[in-house]
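Dear colleagues,

As part of the handover before I leave the project, I'm documenting each prediction I ran so the next person doesn't have to rerun anything. This entry is a single chain, and its sequence is reproduced below.
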Amino acid sequence: MQFNARDSEKSLTISLEPTVSADQDTSTAATDAVAGRSFVRRRRDRHGRGLRGSVLPESLPGARTRSEKFEDLVVDSVERLRGLWPDSLASVEYLIEEVPDQLEAIIASGAQAPLGKFNRANAATGTSPAVPSSIAIYRHPVEVLCDNPGQIRELVHEVMVEQVAGLLNIDPDTVDPLFRKFRGH
């Protein structure tokens, strides 16, 4: 294979097409061109190793990230609470944030980092649109307090129950009858 460079007026064009010399017939040149596979079709990379891909297929549980697993725990908790309070929680938005705002200032003051927060709905005014109720849970502070995945599941549900109770202005035991029944509180 040779590089054929053609110098046009303002640009240089490089062609990777194989050239056929006078002593080589056209049938062998055509078979050589077909025999060369593209990079995508090769089974090896340029260093002779296999092409890189995911270590685990996406269908296996080990392929999910910690944040995706945390989202699943929040969704499970929200579904349980929406089943218990369908009318009150129908218009509530649920958010997952990594850390609370101004975390450094909170830690510097000696207070424990919050695990979640809730915001009540605001009606529309002439200058601002309506804002629905929302509950946010902070992933990193929750995960730091737990030693294993089972504890994360329990703590996520406890935080969600406490935030719903604060939003609805009721006792957490009223929100979920099984609240803290299994942890010995």
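DSSP finds six helices and five strands in the chain. Helices lie at 26-35, 66-84, 103-108, 139-144, 149-168, 172-175.

All the best with the project,
I.
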